[in-house]
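Holo prediction. Input below; ligand is adenosine monophosphate.
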Amino acid sequence: MRIILMGPPGVGKGTEAVLLAEHYHIPHISTGNIFRELYKDNTDVGKIAMGYIDRGELVPNHITNEIVRHRLMEDDAKDGFLFDGYPRNIEQAKAFDHLLKEMGWKLNAVINIAAPDEVIIERIAGRRVCETCGAVYHIHNKKPKREGICDLDGGKLVQRADDMEETVQRRLRIYCDQTAPVIGYYKSKGSIVEIDGTKSIQYTDSTIKKVLGEMN
Ligand code: AMP
Ligand code: ZN
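Structure of the complex:
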């Protein structure tokens, strides 16, 4: 299964991506997570990327596309993958098309999880992530067993620097200007599955699995 999961920041993409990747036994490829890992590992590209991330801007396409190319060459991606947070603009979508063609691969589905700005802002404000493993929680919608502590490894739950309000506004604007047009791009090429992201995690998850089951 080769899937792209789209949607505005904070809509629950990351949480849903983990569930789908487990269900279909495919790697969950999040460009945001890769950049954060590269930063933690003290690499030059990680430091460059974090400058953009902290400002709520997109990391330049040549860096992002190159990272994706390398990731797709890894062994675990040959039988499928789920992209979360990529492509984020038309140029990336075109570069990705090119790469898929080169590999001789076709996408099974492009899924868009949609929600209005008010819902997104509330979700981002309540989002907490594990400092150690990056697992995502929400103070109301996805509480950890012990407040402030990751269920998986006991790591401390913190708010991402780019989830602070000012940066969120900028990320939403960039989403609207640059990422939303990618939905139109995939629509014009064939099909895109639209999912109502205002409901529960369970609703989103079961609806997506049902649709994918019917498609493939
Ligand atoms: P995410 O974890 O998907 O919310 O991504 C966090 C941040 O990483 C974004 O706000 C961007 O600064 C950067 N980023 C992640 N994916 C991409 C991408 N495909 N293109 C450019 N920047 C990205
Ligand atoms: Zn953790």
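The chain has one domain: 2-114+166-215. That is the main takeaway for now.
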